[in-house]
Design goal:
About 85% of the residues lie in helices and about 0% in strands. The protein is mainly alpha-helical.
Length: about 90
């Protein structure tokens, strides 16, 4: 087990999930339900499943493409999104 990678992944996902729409949905659901434990386990299970599917997809793509190309595609994708956000017509 690569403990450094585990810690880095935990921190990255934890910080990116704070305040996103799924957390707001969990807040709304737990506030309007009588079973916040069910909301917790439902949202935790959904995040685990989504992360698992992402890891499987990432592993499959990594088998097909060299790491350098994969990193380049990811960088281009993020740059494209950033440019679209900066120059979005309202």
């Amino acid at each position: 087990m690569d403990w450094d990678l585990l810690g880095l992944t935990f921190i990255a996902v934890f910080l990116s999930e704070l305040g996103d729409k799924s957390q707001l949905a969990a807040i709304a659901l737990s506030g309007s339900s009588k079973s916040p434990q069910a909301v917790f386990f439902g949202t935790a299970g959904a995040l685990v499943l989504a992360s698992f599917l992402g890891v499987l997809a990432g592993d499959a793509v990594a088998e097909l493409l060299p790491t350098q190309i994969l990193k380049g595609l990811a960088a281009l994708g993020f740059a494209f999104i950033a440019l679209r956000l900066l120059w979005k017509d309202n």
